[in-house]
Amino acid sequence: MSFWQKMDQLDRRWIYLTVAAAVILPFLLPTPLPIVITPEARSLFDAVEALPDGCNVMVVYDYYPTTIAECEPIAIAALHHMFRKNCKVITLSNIPYGGPSMAERITRMMGDQYGKTYGVDFVNLGYKYGYVAVLSGMGQSIESIFPTDNSGTPLAQLPLMDSVKNYSDISFIFEIADNATADYWVSIVNAQYGVPIGCGGTAVMAPKFYAYVASGQFVGLLGGMRGAAEYEKLIEIEADATVGMQSQSLVHLVIIGLVVLGNVGYWVGRSQSKRRAA
């Protein structure tokens, strides 16, 4: 039996095993790959870097748990940068399924890492239904929309919120989204209140968001896991996204190789069949 005949009859479970190995191997043996920084990621990093130390910022968790693999590394990289600059971080979510709990978990984890105190250095407002009314209402009064934080503590009892009444007290908004809520941050908050916004989105949403970067309504953009890996490189903290890109790249190479082998095997088999028929 020739090599191509063996390949033609290869048990597909070997293919699944090869792909699984390609996913896992980079996590066991990380191999640095070059990451090229896009202008959109650079401009987002520069905008955050230019913020005054200690200013008030918003980090918005507008993504569902199904896109954690892409969006969570973006959130973590953004919080590394902001806590490193001693920014006061206010988080919220317009996603009812998992948004507030992801904001709570990730922000507290990062706050602990940087020795930050809840209520003084960061606050999680949680979730409120009706994002159009929520985004518009916070322009007048954040407390009127969120009388309490995610845990039910009145905002009046949180020292950070003494100096944060509405968007005029927010220097920057980092929106992380896998859906169209990003459109409303642009059309309501940026357009009407002039708050600069940077965005990190899933890879499938990024093409739409590039238009907002071109129009100047987003100061920059991170597209999916690659965007997160770019930001990790910019802040010089290589973490999950950097390793994830190694895994993703290796899987792409495996798939390309299998496609090439499959096509070559098909043409060789067809050629041999023609010769036997002649």
Strand order of the largest sheet: 3-2-1-4-5-6
Total beta strands: 6
Low-confidence blocks of residues: none
Q: Helix segment count?
A: 11
End-to-end Cα distance: 21 Å
Percentage of residues in DSSP E strands: 5-15%
- How would you spell out the order of helices and strands? HHHEHEHEHHEHEHEHH
Helix percentage: 40-55%
Q: Rounded to an integer, what's the Rg over CA atoms?
A: 23 Å
What summary fits the major beta sheet?
A: 6 strands, parallel
Structural class: alpha/beta
Shape: elongated
Report the mean per-residue pLDDT as an integer: 93
Can you put this structure into words, describing what you see?
By secondary structure, the chain is α/β, with parallel strands linked by helices. About 55% of the residues lie in helices and about 10% in strands. The chain has helices spanning about 5-10, 10-30, 40-50, 70-85, 100-115, 130-135, 140-145, 180-195, 205-215, 225-235, 240-275, and strands at about 55-60, 90-95, 120-125, 170-175, 195-200, 220-225. The chain has a 6-stranded parallel beta sheet, sandwiched between helices. Helix 4 crosses helix 5 (about 100-115). The longest helix is centred in the last third of the chain and has 38 residues, at about 240-275. The two termini are about 20 Å apart. The mean pLDDT is about 95.
